[in-house]
Design brief:
Layout: E1 7-12, H1 35-40, H2 43-48, H3 50-65, H4 71-78, E2 84-89, H5 95-99, E3 104-106, E4 109-116, E5 127-128, E6 147-151, H6 161-169, E7 173-177, E8 199-202, H7 208-211, E9 216-218, H8 222-234
Parallel strand pairs: 1-2, 1-7, 2-3, 7-8, 8-9
Antiparallel strand pairs: 4-5, 4-6
Helix pairs in contact: 4-8
Bound molecules: adenosine-5-diphosphoribose (APR).
Length: about 240
């Protein structure tokens, strides 16, 4: 076994932020149980009901401003002291960064940023925006089109997928935390991980897509599951050597 292997890659979803007080999308109190909110999170919803869309996202941004990173976010960030760590997240919160993670790939955007309605993926018009500052109809992006949250809506292309695929291909350990893997193309990232790489899924529920692919299931909340996994990694039980 190549003992120089030391790259841990995480793929996280809404479940990792539950212990920070943010809800999931498809759980019993999931956001998408409210059908109108699920519709507003689409390009059609935004164009048909722009004010309702902004009200919904301003509410989500305010909720995020009140949330703090939790134990799971911190444990992932702390691994950077000894290992190369890449966090691929579907979450639009910034809790990984606020916990100290420095290499985070947001494939669904980020509520702490805004962009242009005309060219949402144009980096020239993507900028940080205070979470507590509502985005109003009439606020303009740099290209003079309506300002909107920098999050990927249903019907839009995911972001930075090439980087995410590259990271998964070069993982020495791959860990899925708090995602139902219900949404493509993010869910497809598990297929980019080499067969012999140790793979883990941390979730209180069964995640079929993972277990069908030989992931070891750690049936726990993100905080508990990460504490257990870090123990396993540090004890050398997973055959990954610290790099410093
Ligand atoms: N700790 C860990 N996992 C948890 C916890 C917890 N405390 N609570 C719930 N979970 C798990 C659920 O069992 C579920 O598997 O988190 C997962 C949440 O799944 P979803 O609600 O589908 O959220 P997610 O997978 O992140 O959704 C993916 O769908 O609508 C889009 O853009 C949205 O990024 C989102 C994407």
């Amino acid at each position: 076994m190549n003992m120089e292997r030391r790259h841990i890659v995480f793929l996280t979803g809404a479940g990792i932020s539950v212990e920070s007080g943010l809800t999931t999308f498809r759980g019993k109190d999931g956001l998408w149980n409210n059908k109108s909110w699920r519709f507003l999170a689409s390009t059609e919803g935004y164009y048909k009901y722009p004010q309702d869309f902004l009200d919904f996202y301003n509410w989500r941004r305010k909720k995020l401003a009140e949330a703090e990173p939790n134990r799971a976010h911190r444990l992932i960030a702390e691994l950077e002291r000894e290992y190369q760590v890449t966090v691929i997240t579907q979450n639009v919160d910034n809790l990984h960064e606020r916990a100290g993670s420095t290499n985070v790939i947001h494939v669904h955007g980020n509520l702490t940023k805004v962009c242009s309605t005309k060219s949402p993926h144009d980096p020239r018009f993507v900028e940080d925006y205070p979470l507590t500052e509502p985005i109003r109809l009439g606020d303009k992006a740099g290209d003079e089109s309506q300002l909107r949250p920098y999050t990927v809506l249903f019907g839009e292309r995911a972001l930075r997928m090439e980087e995410a695929q590259e990271a998964a291909l070069h993982a020495d350990v791959f860990v899925v935390v708090g995602t139902s893997l219900a949404v493509m193309p993010a869910a497809d990232l598990v297929r980019y991980v080499y067969k012999e790489v140790p793979k883990f899924v941390i979730d209180p529920k069964e995640v079929m897509a993972c277990e069908a692919m030989g992931f070891e299931a750690i049936r726990a909340t993100a905080g508990e599951g990460m504490a257990y996994l870090v123990e396993r990694i540090k004890s050398g039980a997973i055959g990954i050597k610290a790099c410093n």
